[in-house]
Amino acid sequence: MLLGVDVGGTFTDAVLVTPTGIVTAKAPTTPHDQSLGVMAAIDAVLAQAGATPDAVQVVAHGMTVATNALLEDVHARTAFVATEGFADLIELGRQARPELYRLCVAAPAPIAPPQRRFGVRERQGPRDTELALTPIAAAEVAERVAACAPDAVAVCLLHSWRDPTHERLIGDALRERLGSGVHLALSHEIVGTFREYERAATTEIDAALSPLLGAYLERLLERTAAAGLPDPQIMQSSGGLVDAHTAGRHAALTVLSGPAGGAAAAALIAAATDRPNLLCFDMGGTSCDVCVIEGGRARETAGGKIAGRPVALPMVDIHTVGAGGGSIAWRDAGGALRVGPRSAGADPGPAAYGRGGTEPTVTDAHVVLGRLRAQRPLAGGVRIDEEAAHAAVGRLAQELGLELDVCAAGILRVANAEMVRALRVMTVERGLDPRDFALLAFGGAGPLHAAAIAEELGMDTILIPRTSGVLSALGLAAADREVHRQRSVLLTDDALSDSALDAIATELLDEGRAILGAPHAAPRVAWDLRYRGQSHELTVDVQQPSADALRAAFEDAHEARYGWREAGAQVELVTVRVAAVEPGSGLTLERGARGETVRGPTILHLPETTVTVPAGWHGTGDGSGTLVLERER
């Protein structure tokens, strides 16, 4: 049996894959200690399946501990160590404004304040050592760091991606002085690529969050062991699982742990439905996560921003907006109707949940419009309080001077606009036509909004999986185990040889296999290239590389993205990225007979979600248990 557990903003979902089928359950998320909600969901799904813990072979877990800590600015007391003269590197950043036309908006402050930033008398150049680090200087810095009593230390020295000797010396000195109780993050171990600011910011995040995540995972490991379950495997931002001890030591790997499970599930649906190109949106209680599946795989990126902070690590390319079922509707200072990003969360939740919530949410708007009714409990056993929902939306309607139904419909239109904007960021702004994709809608609230969003984008096909409300948890159970290693190399001309490519990829693969503990793990390689002199790179996927093959793939990608290529120009290999991959369970969705056809307008109540089928749409359940809605032309 395979068990996947996904922590959301409102509910914690559990999926148990048994030899006879799939069993699902939900429990309220417990924000103060997510492991309590995790164990409640596990207990519920095991009880529903009539299974015992010893029958479970794999426990896969996606959580939001690191994400929430970043968003809420909660972290360990962190010190930052850099080359002398560069201690303020993270505060200086890229000198780019967070919002172009709002001059008062500032970037997030560095986690380590000025009094906990330290410079080291050393200097590595891009090729040679310019000022050697002495043991005395290293010990002196360690003493100064110890004086500020940190819980974690981030170290990022210039050009350590090329030569980490000095970082290792500083690391040894800090470990000797501070002991094992203080978490230490060295940039060459975590990131391994150039661009000092992004590398430094990622290392600081890793140092600051790892003590918190490590403590959470220790509690979870204790509870799963006491229950007789295997140690959980943790979902990384890259879409692959890693053991809990590795995740606890490097929290930066998990900042998109929750949403990445949805991307893994989307790839599973793509295979089951023979639709390799999907535009996915996962709408839960707090947010909506959007990603693209091309050729049956989730699109990946070499890094991104979380809570305004750069994270220079491989991750599933996901765009998130604050539009979920629990997103609160409100009137702004100009009198306009707004939705989110603030959410009612799990406690107290939407007014319709009857748990003390009084502010109007997207869920309450659906209740007012009759899409969610008291006669049909929601997943997780939640019963709708129609009177509370009407009262909450009614107060906002009075503020805005609108009729009740008009206000509720307006809430949904505003929420839809936010999600459409996110989907356009991932498609139109990147040269993709959404009409070439099917829309995969999941999460507890996604299928309620799918048709309206598809119509806005000109899309004709919607896929709604049978396990839509817990699909991310199913993706966790099906995910591969993997470890990513990356290194900047900056190779051109004769240095960009076939033998050099093979040597670098082999070395990184060996590192990944050692961390994963899987000596025969399969490689997956990506190459970042650019024309010599360009500032940024394009990533190409060439699994059997040669210098000529890389150049051809890069120029094709460059022309597809920018509309031109430069024949005869030098091509530079910037970074090599290798994933050591151990295949997961090989889970596939069962095949069966097609279901009955439904025609809109109607509302379908599935076990895990509710589906709005407007006029002009019809749908049929396919052999994998996925509802396929198509627009009539």
Automatic annotation (TrEMBL):
Every Hydantoinase/oxoprolinase N-terminal domain range: 3-177
MF-aspect GO terms: 5-oxoprolinase (ATP-hydrolyzing) activity
Classification via Pfam families: Hydant_A_N, Hydantoinase_A
Coiled-coil region list: none
GO BP, sorted A to Z: glutathione metabolic process
InterPro entries: ATPase_NBD, Hydant_A_N, Hydantoinase_A, Oxoprolinase-like
Domain Hydantoinase A/oxoprolinase: start-end pairs: 199-481
GO cellular component: cytosol
UniProt-recorded name of the protein: Unannotated protein
